[in-house]
Amino acid sequence: MSRSVLFDTETTGFEPLTGDRVIEIAAIELINDLPTEKQFYALLDPERDIPSDSTRVHGITNAHVEGKPKFADVADQMLEFFGDSPLVAHNAPFDFAFISAELERIGRKKLDKALMIDTLVLAKQRFPGMPNSLDALCRRFEIDLSARTTHNALLDCKLLAEVYVELTGGRQRGLVLETEQGLAFAQYDAPETRTPRLVVVSEEQLAAHAEFIGKLKEPVWLKE
Length: 224
Hints:
9 helices; alpha/beta
């Protein structure tokens, strides 16, 4: 059983090294690449104003984060949830850079890039030259996007989890597992316990079969 964590962030902008901050973190536990019920979520006070351009993207305003915890208040809980598991994100270098910058501000180690799994890279490998945004991938895999009116870290995580299942062949793996289980159970179904079924062929079916064979060149059914 393998555990990984899929996560997403919303931020005040695009540059963590010049003052932009994380304002929302969401993470979902995956077991064998499939989501479980366990998740982590935090809406944060970024300790600075949220630009209106950023609000237009994710819908989070200064009023929404007033009185919310700061990153330092949730860092331990987040790191405990992450553990040593691989960390999955869409355009993962962006999210890694922001979380690492926040960790450095409070004297903690950066996220280990060796744990990074970037679903954008996976998508580009599978669909080279095609749009591979989260929206585009959801449409390609026929995943419902109706609730995604703005970027929202937790909703994006849930959508990305569905995308990740498709990108990694998770559903197919599930089908294979079910097939293997069926075969395993079949081993206990001894031949002597089965009741033969008599198949009765009607005159009409025999006539139709004969007519079909008559249209074939040298049919094997007529060879001795």
